[in-house]
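Researcher: Hi, I'm a grad student and pretty new to this. My advisor asked me to get structures for two proteins we've been looking at. I'm not sure of the right format, so I'll just paste the first sequence and hope you can take it from there.
Model: That works fine. Here's the first sequence with its structure tokens right after it:
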Amino acid sequence: MALEWVVLGYAAAAEAIMVLLLTIPGLDGLRKGLIAVTRNLLKPFLSVVPFCLFLLMDIYWKYETRPSCESSDACTPTEFLRHQKSIMKSQRNALLIAAALVFYWLLYSVTHLVVRLEQLNQRVERLKNQD
């Protein structure tokens, strides 16, 4: 299961880097190429959404089937420590899922806005040239 989390982490990092590069001012020369690359990657990155849902169901299943260590007599110290580590990993993984989904949404929104801004700038230039 660790490989799935690594893949999701890399996808979230790639999304974050693309959002950052699209929003940094002063990269006008690179922006057209970056917009083209980002628009082409939006559909493959959409696969992050069902992948996140699958991993979320996996976390839920692990949560429902884990042994209960509520009282100190129910578990040995080793089992209690393993239980606590499992809870911490599940919380970390849930944060990673949320980050991947938020970064995908941001990437989609920012790309749409940048493309729309570019279209409006072209329209303004055409109107200036007509007058």
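Researcher: Oh nice, that was easy. Here's the second one.
Model: And its structure:
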Amino acid sequence: MGNSESTCSPQEDDCKEAETKLMECALAHLTPKVVEIGTKTLEEGYKAAFDADDDKYEEYMKGGPCKESYMAYVESSDKDSHDKDITMMECLEAHSDYYHKFLDFYNGGPEQVMKEFESINPFRDPIRGHEFLGDCCKQQYSDFMNCFLKNI
């Protein structure tokens, strides 16, 4: 009972290892893409909401009932900004009639990022996976697909 033999076949173990290596490579490759998509989406949302004008944004945020919590957040040091962020967001939500423009931008961002990511998701089908991962994970993808096809 002391041995640690696998209960899976050697082929299943090889496939699991190939899948793990592919996922590690893909995650390393996808992270910059997700950051790129997130940045692009947030920039587009910011531009749409505030014409990419920092002064207009600042004036808008200070012009409403959450001026104090906004200023506390802006002026806080990194170590306590999370608490200030929560306080500010609670205030913005409570005054959504005024802050709807910011909240639409803020709340819509993650949803838009997911839509963008789904449009390039490499794991929706094998052909797209190969095209997306390209040379980056070519060997890992090949090993995984060979195992996958052997088990069909």
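Researcher: Is there anything I should tell my advisor about the second?
Model: You could mention this: DSSP finds seven helices and no strands in the chain.
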